[in-house]
Known about the structure:
Layout: E1 2-6, H1 11-23, E2 27-31, H2 38-41, E3 51-54, E4 57-60, H3 62-72, H4 83-104, H5 108-113, H6 119-139, H7 153-173, H8 182-192, H9 195-204
Parallel strand pairs: 1-2
Antiparallel strand pairs: 1-3, 3-4
Glutathione (GSH) is lined by residues 10-12, 34, 47-49, 61-62.
Amino acid sequence: MIKLYGLRMSNYYSLTKALLIEKGVDFEEVKRPPSQKEDFLMLSPMGKMPAIEAEGVYLSESIAIATYLESLQPKPALLPANTMQAAKVMELVCHLKLDVELVARRLLPEALFKQPVSEETKAAVKTDLAKGMKAVDRLFVGTPYAAGEQVTLADFYTFYSLGMASGMVRAIYGEDLLAEYATIRGVQALMAQHPSVQRVETEKTA
Ligand SMILES: N[C@@H](CCC(=O)N[C@@H](CS)C(=O)NCC(=O)O)C(=O)O
């Protein structure tokens, strides 16, 4: 059985848990806060959550875990069978993660821990986020899912990465990151009803 290490409060932990549920893979959750201590760095070399343990091996990074799960349990497929279409889904995932969420994370110290972020950083983040959102929007299909008719990995990143980024933007600027992006909001709403995501979100409060 796969072990999933981390905490339910983490969006990447939640995303990975949703993927495990979606794939119907047996797993157990092991509560482990992120840490820079050696025993956690063995699981996850940057000391971040989540990590999984499968086949006696530790694996970190949500994209690497998603890739492993896709090979391990191909059905339901979260990447299109067509090679280029699958690559386009991964392209969208990269932009969601690197050009929106990772940018918004620079606001996290103030949004979550009351450690002020400089006005300079806030201005730079705002500019970079606007650029990242335009990139994401350009790739979004949204009929009805992020990459078209089929639920893909991009929908899970849309829900969890943009969910996190939206929270940061609301907390720091008092604005709605998705205000101008009705199609993306539609996918967010759809994924909020998606059974694996619903289970993850419900169990957070359990
Ligand atoms: N690139 C990683 C990011 C994981 C990540 O940022 N995890 C956060 C929680 S959502 C974490 O462990 N933060 C603690 C830290 O940075 O020390 C992934 O995709 O899995």
